[in-house]
Each structure stands twice: as C-alpha cells, then as structure tokens.
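dude i think i finally got it to work??
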Amino acid sequence: MKALRLLTLSLALLPACATSVVGLSRDASYTMDATADGTQDTASDSAQDTAPESAPNCDQDGDGFLSLACGGNDCDDTRASVNPGRSAADDTGTCDGLDNDCNPATSELGVPCPGGGVCAPGGVCASAASIQQLATRGGHTCALHRDGTVLCWGDNRWGQLGDGSTTERHSPVVVPGLTHVVELATGDDFRLGSHTCARLSDGTVRCWGANGNGQLGDGTTAERHSPVVVSGLTGVAGLATGGGYTCARLNDGTVRCWGMNRYGELGDGTTTERHGPVAVPGLANVVELATGYDAIFEEGGHTCARLSDGSVQCWGANAAGQLGDGTTAERHSPVVVPGLTNVVGLAAGGARTCARRSDRTVRCWGSNRQGELGDGSTTERHSPVVVPGLTNVAELATGDDDGFGGPHLRAIEHGEGAVLGRQQLRSARRRHDQCEIRPLPRDKPHQRGRARGGTAHTCARRSDGTVLCWGDNSAGQFGDGSTTSRFTPTLVPGL
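look at this
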C-alpha cells in the first residue's frame, strides 16, 4: 500500500509537458529504456532505466511560451521571434514565410512589399501582375499564373481543383504537373458536377473533375482528380465549357465539342452523348465561343459562336428563346441569330445570351425571369433586344442559373461596372422598371480586369494582377483561407 502511495505521488509530480510516458522506471517518473539517455522505450526494450532521464524541453527557444507538443500554443519552438505574444502587425508587416503571431487568421500573404509586388508563399515578393486570367463557376475558382502554371481553390467534390484529391481548399493550391497553360475554362452543374479545362501553348487541352457525361474528353466517364489529355485534339485556339460539356475553337475556325448532348448543345446534329471531341458540321470562321446552362429551370445548355464577319450562330436548348432565332425550338445544329451584326463580344449564361456590338452597345435575349436581360422588363425575349442606357461597354460576363445565386449579367464599361439582374449578396440592386448603373469605387477590381461569373460568387483580376472575390464563400472559393462570405471585394492572398 505504501508503494502504491509513492507511485501516485511521483506521477503527480510529473511536469505538465511530460505527456509521453509509456512505461515506469524505478522512481516512476520517466520512460523505460536500457540506458538513461533521454530516449523513449521501444517495443524491444526489456531493461528498466538505471537512472532518471531528463524531462523534455517545453520551451526550446526560451521565449516563455510552451511548445505545441507540450500542450502550449507556440507554433514554432525553434524561433524566439515566432510566438503567440507577437502582434498581428508583426505578422502582416513582414514577408518572411513565417506565422509570426501563431495566428492563422492573420497572414502576410497578399500584403504589398516595400520594394514592389505582393508577399507570396515562401516569404518571397512576387510581381503583382502575376495572374493572367481567372475562371470561376460553381463553387471553385482557378487562376492562370504568368509562368503558365495554374492555381485553384474552393469546392473540390469532383476533383475539379486538379490537385489529385477531393479535399476542399480554402487557399490556392497548384495543379501539379500542369505547365505552359495559356487559357482556362470551368464548367458547372450542381447535379452533374464541376470540371476544369486548360489550353496549352502547343494547342492541346487538359481537363479534370466531373466526367459523368464525358465532358473531360478522354474517351471515358471516369472522374479525374488530376489533368488528363483530351483525346485527338490539337490546334486549339479557344475553350468554352458548359454544364456537363466542353467546346473548343480550332486555329482553322472550326469547332469541336464533347460531353452531354441532351439538348443538342454539341451541335453535331444529334442528341448523342460524346466522350471525345466531335466536329460541329458546317461551322467555319469562328472567332469566339460562349456557353450557357440552366439546371434549375431545366432549360438545358446552349452554345453560341461569333464569326469573323460579326454574325452569331447558336445551337442547343431553346425553351426560353436563348438561341435568338425567334423561336423556342430546340436546335441540334447551328442557326443564325437574325438581325444581329457587327458583334465583337459574346456572353452566355443560364438560358440567356448577350452580345456586345462594335458601337459598344449590348443586345440580349432569352430568359428574363428576374430582369437579367436589362431591358426594363421580365418578358422572355426570343430575339435580341437592346439594353437601354448601356453604352461604352468593353466586356460582358454572365452567371449560370443553377439555384445558388440566380442569374445576372455584368457589363464592364470604361470606369464603370454595371450589374443587371438578381441581387447576389448585395453585389448589385435590380429594378424591373429600369436598369440601374452604379459606378463602382475606382479601387474596385473591374478596371481593365478579366472577370468571370460563378454561381454565387464573383472574382475579378485588376490591372495590377491582383485578384479579388466577393459573394458566397461557403466552400472557400475566395481563396482567403476562410469560409466567411463577403459583401465586398476581398483580396485572394498568395497569388
């Protein structure tokens, strides 16, 4: 009984950080080992310590904070300059690759460096103009770096981030093994899944993510968590992705499409699903492609092509008149949009299409349930109508209808950004009786950037190469390390 009391007493006197006791030595205070060398026992040890071993050092750097291994909160016990006693300014004020205040909520990433550029991973100051293009759809975003590599973040249920996993990422991660990329495109449907495609400088294409309809073009329907080559496709000059399908514009002005074809959105004259690229017959001199997909109202996918003569041809689903041919008849081959000329830019989303003309005005057609055509009504339009009061437009972007954020159109003007359609987390106001065009603050990301609309979040690249996102962030699609939704543009760090 006396021995038991001594054993209990000696255990109580153990230092708080000595949590790795796996056996008892003679004085019951240290781990068993053949020698008193400070190492723990192994399974083969049979001899007890002949002398007490020293307790582990819980504050190796001497900064007064216990290490994580000892139950403390010092995230780096080898550097006295890194500890939870430091301020947030100590962390954000330096670009050294260290979490100086041991608080993941504060970060040096994305903070401007005194000598120029912004702080990037590894404690280096990268050029602020490093991001060349953004692609965002659904709950994920991908960014094209100027060195030809790709970073992605957000929802990853189908492997659409391309990092070899299905782990949701709240900060940008590099797509391993992918180089020489010159263009990105993302496709999404909350039922069919999300996928991403990249065009390489040699004219080939890599895709990854959901593949239930063959939208990756590798000849299978197997989900891919890393990039795979699109079979037999070369000479690609441009990409466009929809919900469950993908299209490519070739250098010779022809088009290839693959994936879901339920509504004839591949334009090959059939509704047969294709797991590899097929030609769109009779279509030539194409200089731009745009795709839209409406999942929530079951109005399907459609594709439009801008030709070198300024005309437009569309095909696929047409229940809301999104093909612009004056009917609601589904088309399995391209049809001309009558009366539309001098087009220099296209945007398609959901069951609607918009065109920017050479005079910088805009025409839209298709679904208009929530005023997304911007004509002051909610009347469905089967032919192009003018968006009144909208002039000097330099770029268009529109989101799909998939039930997460509602349809909207974003028109980028010289010095102004106008959003037409349903409110998305206060990014704009919508009024049926008029299109309200409100200037965005001059430091906001519309200036000279290339924007791409997602379903419930929007991201934009500024002229200095930095990236900002706003809206829904439930899957980490902002890339700021959190899942907190933002009502105003938030910098994506580490790009």
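The first helix runs from residue 2 to 12.
im so relieved honestly
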